[in-house]
């Protein structure tokens, strides 16, 4: 099915709501066209195009709620999906924490769509793959990569007057370049709303250069080091921490934001004062939808950490009501303030330290402290007297992002990035951090 | 890698509960009507003919109907009940020596034939950047055949109310026993897969799987501490009879420290133990870091096997096809060719299979029409084989595929996925209590905890759910803050003893992620309780304020 415009989705939503006999009805319609190309060993392995559209209907009778989803849009299917949701709602037990769907919201449009990205065709995808494959073949290196582009829409509506429709686009590119003997490996990631801001040739060069420079890594003793963490080295660590900003978990005593003796740590200083983080659906680099489709509430620009203090936490509508707080749409992006220095400039001001390109396979070890473990990968270097001295073997770390954000020495220029396993769009700086805890060595290249 | 990425489903959950989303929600009563086999054959033939006519040298068609039901609860409340359905057709072809793939959810002859032609066009475009033509190991067409997961009770026929009540009863049991909060879930999967290929196979299969994880959380507000204990259940490839627990399904842990399960699961009993043990964890002794002999229980060890042996012996990783995402492998072809690479000690034997009843990986045929089989990966400690698909078999001198092809949906292309990979039981008669008897300074670990391994599968770190000190052959008090960190080859070479077949049972991964775009698969790993000597244990306690 094609990407649906505002009128088309509104017509469907109005019809669905008119069919419902429930006390309230909410409708979400989403659709996307996603293209991709994957390559490895300097050859394309798979390529594809997936189109998908779906309609979600959620209804409630009193405090009983039901949800049904379908991907057909003829009149019979619309009727069917409403009846299914109503049947489930009638069968469901009453939820004492049920909250009615919100009243009409003011959604200020954000600029999430790019015509350039929407116009990507299979030839463009092949060309993206060809740049790195051909350059690596010539240089005697081996490329593996994945490029994906998406055009999508989302519409939300409910029986109390909420309505929003917006188009979105995005591209994501990752490329790993390895030396033929497997002794060197480099990597790059690029994300953009507008594909014209993506340079596949330059990106491939970054991975190739890191592969060449990472050969013959020396072992450095594990321990606490000053590190320069490129944005891809902290993206998933930060995403883990921001996933734990739920006020209820903190109030219930089961989060690092819980206060000894009860309550949460709102307004407490937990981080270095250089740490300033906010969410902003209208950010020019990483705009996101002005609503959160789970609660149907409008998103706002909100400070999350200000001068190292916890400035806000996420309240579900139920918990907000119970605690006398205000619920807003949950953030879709995370912006962290940085400085103006490039990574090279951060290196230049470092006497002794470790440069980390990215981190990998990060898992929570202890939720009490957000202690995470994971490894460095695809370009780890030793810095001495302001210069990269030589590549070093990868490390496993056991570190909490809370500690990391307390030990900040200096921040670099923020970059747009998607995390490997993060649901947030990120704009985060490279960070120079002291005493980062590397606990063991890895032989992996 | 074991995925942790879940999508938010419930608005009411306030972000606290996440379940993976696979398809479209439907009413439970509609799940039971399968698509007519004759209709599927006609659709498949339309694709096979269109592809051949468009110039494909090979074509396979997968018609899938994926039905799932997820129930999520929190304390005494049902948070969400979701029924999903996803149906469609995926067509894979070889043309000009290259693969092409296209998929459609429009189940008509015309749409399927269009997808086949589109796949051929994509194959021709891909051929431009191909370095060598795809070479498929032969497989004999089997004509029209069918296979189904053996089960006694169909989860689709069990009333939702009964399932929800079971979860709530478990939550109540956990809270009565000491948990401040409980969360429990029930994942139920039915995959109806029809495979047809130009080799002359028309294979109709019906898969059933389920898993019921939970988390008990104990909070001590005064100290600001909290601890969790997850359920010890293993996901299974069977029906709802999994919950009809019988005495023979119960396994006594070494020293009787807790109750374990095999082939059936008492979620209420386990939740009760979890509530008590989560509370006990709040005051348990923090581990002294250092070298310990580890005694690892099967529902813990499966994940270490999965990461350090299962993924390391995937041939596509070894060759570099996963280099940009999951990574490559230290178990390179030269180590296999030499037939002398000591992956583990002499008693370490790993077997791959797609046949074990009750396992998540059991099939009649894989997603390339290859019959399920069983083969050695590591024999007497030596690496002897890998996991291969049809296009990889020739690389390791095999005449036929191992049958390791899988796609998680009709809309994704099939590729090499892990079969069940299991550690064979010890030949010497030995119970867990007898195994512990000789351990001077050790730790007994049960349940899956935190897990992480590098991209070539050398360095790993694992936690668990329950840790008990072993001193001079006796199991002592509960320990806290335990994780062990080792290197794959070093670890498996430190394996000194294992219990016999009586103690052998399977754990499993329900959401194993691999590929770009990422696909999940489910796989089991069996072992008996096993001992590893002198493993490095770290203390994971930290202070952040």
Overview of this protein structure:
The complex is a heterodimer of chains A (445) and B (545). Chain A is of the alpha+beta class. Chain A folds into 2 domains: 6-212, PmbA/TldD superfamily (PmbA/TldD fold, 2-Layer Sandwich), CATH 3.30.2290.10; 217-445, no CATH class. Helix content of chain A is 23%, strand content 40%. Chain A is built from 10 helices and 19 strands. In chain A, the strands form 3 sheets. Chain A has a 6-stranded antiparallel beta sheet. In chain A, a hairpin with a 2-residue loop joins strand 2 (43-61) and strand 3 (64-70). In chain A, helix 4 packs parallel to helix 5 (200-213). Chain A is globular and about 70 Å long. The mean pLDDT of chain A is 94. By secondary structure, chain B is α+β, with helices and mostly antiparallel strands. Chain B folds into 2 domains: 7-216, PmbA/TldD fold (2-Layer Sandwich), CATH 3.30.2290; 285-539, no CATH class. Helices cover 19% and strands 36% of the residues of chain B. Chain B contains 9 helices and 30 strands. Chain B has helices spanning 37-53, 109-127, 160-177, 267-281, 298-310, 315-319, 333-337, 432-437, 488-493, and strands at 7-8, 18-19, 58-74, 77-95, 98-104, 143-148, 181-197, 201-211, 214-220, 225-230, 250-252, 259-261, 285-286, 290-296, 350-353, 374-379, 382-383, 405-406, 415-416, 420-423, 441-446, 451-453, 459-462, 466-471, 474-480, 482-487, 495-498, 505-514, 519-527, 530-539. In chain B, the strands form 7 sheets. In chain B, strands 13, 14, 21, 22, 23, 24, 25, 26, 27 and 30 form a 10-stranded mixed beta sheet that branches. In chain B, strands 3, 4, 5, 6, 7, 8, 9 and 10 form an 8-stranded mixed beta sheet that branches. Chain B has a 4-stranded antiparallel beta sheet with strand order 17-16-15-20. In chain B, helix 1 (37-53) packs parallel to helix 2. Mean pLDDT of chain B is 92; it is low at 4-29. At the A-B interface, strand 1, strand 2, strand 3, helix 2 and helix 4 of A face strand 4, strand 5, helix 2, helix 3 and strand 9 of B.
């Amino acid at each position: 099915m094609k990407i649906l415009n505002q009128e088309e989705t509104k017509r469907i939503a109005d019809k669905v709501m008119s069919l419902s006999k429930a006390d309230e009805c909410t409708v979400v319609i989403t659709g996307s066209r996603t293209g991709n190309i994957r390559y490895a060993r300097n050859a394309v392995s798979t390529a594809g195009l997936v189109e998908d559209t779906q309609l979600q209907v959620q209804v409630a009778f009193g405090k009983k709620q039901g949800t049904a989803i379908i991907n057909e849009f003829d009149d019979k299917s619309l009727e069917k999906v409403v009846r299914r949701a109503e049947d489930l709602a009638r069968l469901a037990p009453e939820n004492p924490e049920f909250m009615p769907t919100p009243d009409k919201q003011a959604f200020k449009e954000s600029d999430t769509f790019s015509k350039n990205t929407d116009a990507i065709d299979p030839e463009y995808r092949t060309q993206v793959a060809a740049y790195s494959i051909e350059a690596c073949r010539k240089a005697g290196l081996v490329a593996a990569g994945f490029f994906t582009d998406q055009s999508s829409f989302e519409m939300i509506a409910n029986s109390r007057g909420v309505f929003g429709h917006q188009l979105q686009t995005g591209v994501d590119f990752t490329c790993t370049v390895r030396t033929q003997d497997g002794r060197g490996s480099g990597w790059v990631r690029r994300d953009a709303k507008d594909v014209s801001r993506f340079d596949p040739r330059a990106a491939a060069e970054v991975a190739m250069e890191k592969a060449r420079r990472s050969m013959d890594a020396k072992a450095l003793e594990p321990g606490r080091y000053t590190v320069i963490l490129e944005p891809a080295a902290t993206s998933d660590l930060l995403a883990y921490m921001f996933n734990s900003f739920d006020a209820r978990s903190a109030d219930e005593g089961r989060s690092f934001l819980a206060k000894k003796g009860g309550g949460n740590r709102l307004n407490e200083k937990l981080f270095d004062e250089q740490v300033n983080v906010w969410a902003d659906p209208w950010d020019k680099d990483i705009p996101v939808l002005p609503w959160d489709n789970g609660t149907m509430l409008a998103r706002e620009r909100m400070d999350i950490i200000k001068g190292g203090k916890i400035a806000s936490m996420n309240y579900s509508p139920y918990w907000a009501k119970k605690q006398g707080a205000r619920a807003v749409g949950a953030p879709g992006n995370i912006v962290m303030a940085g400085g103006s220095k490039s990574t090279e400039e951060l290196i230049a001001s470092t006497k002794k330290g470790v440069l980390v390109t990215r981190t990998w396979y990060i898992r929570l070890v202890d939720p009490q402290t957000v202690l995470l473990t994971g490894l460095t990968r695809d370009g780890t270097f030793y810095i001495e007297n302001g210069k990269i001295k030589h590549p070093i073997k990868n490390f496993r770390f056991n570190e909490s992002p809370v500690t990391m954000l307390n030990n900040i020495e200096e921040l670099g220029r923020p970059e747009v990035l998607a995390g490997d396993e993060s649901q947030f769009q990120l704009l985060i700086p490279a960070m120079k951090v002291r005493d980062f805890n590397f606990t063991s060595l890895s032989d992996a290249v | 890698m074991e995925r942790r990425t879940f999508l938010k489903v419930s608005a009411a959950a306030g972000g606290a509960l996440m379940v993976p989303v696979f398809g479209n929600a439907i009413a439970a009563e509609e799940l039971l009507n399968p698509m007519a086999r004759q209709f599927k054959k006609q659709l498949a033939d339309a694709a096979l003919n269109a592809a051949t006519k468009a110039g494909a040298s090979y074509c396979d068609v997968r018609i899938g109907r994926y039905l799932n039901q997820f129930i999520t609860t929190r304390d005494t409340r049902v948070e969400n009940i979701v029924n999903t359905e996803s149906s469609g057709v995926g067509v894979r072809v070889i043309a000009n020596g290259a693969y092409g793939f296209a998929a459609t959810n429009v189940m008509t002859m015309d749409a399927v034939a269009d997808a086949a032609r589109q796949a051929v066009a994509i194959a021709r475009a891909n051929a431009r950047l191909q370095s060598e033509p795809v070479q498929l190991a032969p497989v004999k067409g089997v004509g029209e055949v069918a296979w189904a997961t053996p089960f006694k009770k169909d989860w689709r026929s069990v009333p939702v109310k009964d399932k929800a009540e079971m979860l709530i009863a478990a939550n109540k049991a956990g809270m009565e026993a000491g948990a401040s909060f409980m969360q429990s879930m029930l994942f139920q999967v039915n995959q109806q897969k029809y495979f047809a290929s130009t080799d002359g196979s028309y294979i109709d299969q019906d898969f059933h799987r389920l898993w019921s994880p939970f988390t008990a959380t104990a909070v001590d507000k005064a100290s600001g501490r909290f601890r969790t204990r997850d359920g010890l259940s293993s996901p299974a490839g069977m029906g709802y009879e999994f919950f009809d627990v019988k005495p023979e399904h119960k396994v006594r842990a070494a020293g009787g420290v807790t109750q374990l399960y095999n082939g059936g699961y008492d979620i209420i009993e386990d939740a009760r133990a979890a509530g008590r043990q989560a509370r006990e964890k709040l005051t348990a002794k923090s581990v002294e870091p250092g070298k310990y002999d580890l005694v690892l229980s099967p529902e813990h060890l499966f994940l270490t096997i999965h990461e350090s042996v299962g993924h390391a012996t995937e041939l596509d990783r070894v060759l570099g096809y996963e280099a940009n995402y999951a990574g490559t492998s230290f178990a390179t072809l030269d180590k296999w060719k030499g037939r002398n690479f000591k992956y583990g000690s002499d008693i370490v034997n790993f077997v791959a299979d797609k046949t074990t009843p009750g396992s998540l990986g059991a099939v009649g045929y894989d997603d390339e029409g290859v019959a399920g089989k069983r083969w050695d990966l590591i024999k007497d400690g030596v690496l002897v084989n890998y996991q291969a698909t049809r296009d990889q078999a020739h690389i390791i001198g095999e005449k036929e595929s191992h049958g390791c092809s899988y796609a998680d949906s009709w809309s994704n292309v099939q590729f090499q996925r892990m079969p069940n990979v299991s550690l064979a039981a010890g030949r010497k008669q030995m119970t867990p209590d007898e195994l512990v008897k000789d351990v001077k300074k050790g730790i007994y670990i049960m349940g899956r905890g935190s897990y992480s391994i590098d991209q070539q599968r050398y360095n790993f770190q694992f936690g668990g759910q329950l840790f008990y000190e072993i001193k001079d052959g006796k199991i002592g008090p509960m320990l806290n803050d335990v994780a062990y960190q080792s290197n794959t080859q070093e670890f498996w070479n430190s394996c000194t003893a294992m219990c016999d077949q009586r103690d052998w049972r399977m754990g499993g991964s329900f959401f194993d992620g691999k590929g770009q775009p990422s696909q999940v698969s489910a796989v089991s790993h069996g072992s008996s309780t096993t001992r590893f000597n002198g493993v490095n244990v770290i203390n994971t306690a930290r202070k952040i304020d």
